[in-house]
Amino acid sequence: MERIGVFICRCGTNIAAVVDVPAVTAAAKNVPGVVHADENAYTCSETGQAAIVKAIKTHNLEGVVVASCSPRMHESTFRECIKGAGLNPYLLEMANIREQCSWVHPDKAVATRKALKLIEMAVAKTRKLEPLTPSSVSVSRQALVIGGGIAGIQAALDISAAGYKVTLVERLPTIGGKMAQLDKTFPTLDCGA
Ligand code: SF4
Known about the structure:
Elements: E1 4-9, H1 21-28, E2 34-40, H2 46-58, E3 63-68, H3 71-84, E4 92-96, H4 98-102, H5 108-126, E5 142-146, H6 150-161, E6 165-169, E7 184-185, E8 190-191
Parallel strand pairs: 1-2, 1-3, 3-4, 5-6
Antiparallel strand pairs: 7-8
The structure holds iron/sulfur cluster (SF4).
């Protein structure tokens, strides 16, 4: 993929007070595969999303990198956004330059360098992205626990207590694992078995 657009968010001053956004935007234009880079005050806003849609159409973008907050916050927002512009929603990558950069680095020069590195990595990944189609499979509400040691037994009990049918598999004739071989256990001196 050789036509990637990069959208760098200022998030008001959340990012812009620490990261030199204009410098990062200028540098992002020179990253291999990038044909368009721009900055927005609030990329998740209607205006910010409209700018992404417009750029996708104007520059015939094949993939999008949004450098902003955590994907947990807005990945679905931007997936929907690029889908609205006709791109497969999975041709999106986010570079987290807020939680993992501006919020944790007081040094502006360091934060700016790191923001660009995060964007370069996101672009590199985007170049290898392929369109995906969501599919669904039926799930059997049962669990298989392999290993009948203490951890396996406890896991089986916990899952069972949560209301699921559990099958516990052990290759030896008895369960209990190493614990069953112990005579006494500290500090209660209970027998292992
Ligand atoms: S996309 Fe994220 S970083 Fe940008 S304005 Fe919205 S919340 Fe802030």
